[in-house]
Amino acid sequence: MPASNRPTSRPTSRPGAGEVRDRLRAAAFALFEERGYDATTVGDIAEAAGVGRTTFFRAFGSKEDVIFPEHTALLERVRSRLETATTPGAATLIGIAEATRLVLEHYLQEGDLARARYRLTRTVTTLRDRELASTLQYHRVYRDALRAWTGEEAGRDLRAELLAAAVVTAHNHVLRRWLRGVVDGAGAVEELGLALEEALGTGPNGALPRPADEGTSIVVLRTPYDVDAVLPALRRALADDAPR
Amino acid sequence: MPASNRPTSRPTSRPGAGEVRDRLRAAAFALFEERGYDATTVGDIAEAAGVGRTTFFRAFGSKEDVIFPEHTALLERVRSRLETATTPGAATLIGIAEATRLVLEHYLQEGDLARARYRLTRTVTTLRDRELASTLQYHRVYRDALRAWTGEEAGRDLRAELLAAAVVTAHNHVLRRWLRGVVDGAGAVEELGLALEEALGTGPNGALPRPADEGTSIVVLRTPYDVDAVLPALRRALADDAPR
DNA sequence: CGAGAGTACGGTACTGAGTACCGAATAGAG
DNA sequence: CTCTATTCGGTACTCAGTACCGTACTCTCG
Domain HTH tetR-type: where (chains A, B) (predicted)? Predict the structure, then answer.
């Protein structure tokens, strides 16, 4: 943030702010692809980028951070978007969908970089763990936002958590399909909408949060038969209590 | 596994197999509580346990592994339980519930150890990440099992994933309540059942996957009412197809 | 009882990530 | 041109984790 308020370009031998960062990241990914993550030391990366090892750790906090840049910034954007979405009376579900699309489109813009990262995270265990951890940070953000929305009463907790998990899962599902090249960018954005509908239950027979009052739960599974046809089976199932 | 087939006790100065492991774990947790995780080196732990540093790494693969023991073993038990549960014709939902209870009860048996771990994982970031990663391993196991059950056709993928996320989320929700002392062991087991019902039943429409072949599925959620009492509600739900 | 095999342990030495600190070069302001 | 702030590079350190080797102990077979 200190470099943004310097309007003039840097015509000197001193590299522009952020340029070193880019060189380092490029060198890192190149080396990772070539010899693998573990076989590449931070010293190698720094040398390839023509800078000192110290500079690497100043630009990125750790070796892993080269691969997951701007993660915290993106998370913050999602958080602020959700915050405005979950104020009482706001169109919460739309806000959630928008926040989620924010994330997806971020990866879409990264393009090959995101795919290279995906290749690495599938191979190296520590990186996969790191990515999973960041996934659960999203879960937290959504959960907290939804909790603020649904209220804090007992029982709502689990509901908020389930919804958050569903949203994150839906997003990751679509993202992975794009990363694997199953769908293109436009298709992914479209699929995200459908996936969210399925995750949140806002689709055909939307089953959004049911009021917390006590009562009988009825789960309707679509079946070609009508009620009377399945009723005997239902009675039988209730009788021996061990549905199979 | 090499120690189990030695029937006689070890009367010598050589400690029994596994005893060193226990000493190390006890020393580790004591030091972690005392000075914190980061401020405790592996050398400190080994010294406190009266063994060499090398022995520590032989007993546990890494510093983190002291805190997460038997994780892989437990994961394997869940996997095998799910495997038998998702063979065609088996009582899948019950199998899932049982597998999940397996995990919960494992932690309940750990008792204070699990709670000490919880305290640590809340404080130290790397440990939290590690735990989250293990959480997502469970997600994978459930997802794969459910995928095998629902079939691989397009569209089922997301459904299996959503279900897996819901189950894991429900479990973690209950587990956290026990870890925080909100409920006791018996209460946690009971809550798990309810949470699973909520996770599997109230989520997205038809969250319970239809079997791959056509037919009528009957899902029975325990309710204090008998069939005739809920029948009107059932008819109504089927009639307008879009409850609330 | 004694020799040999297998194993658990301790110690040393190494690599690599990450941190702290210091000095040099450079850019900007006055 | 001088002073100051910032950035970079280099050195030295801590600590996790690995590889290797020698040793002490136990068990087994002769």
Answer: 18-78
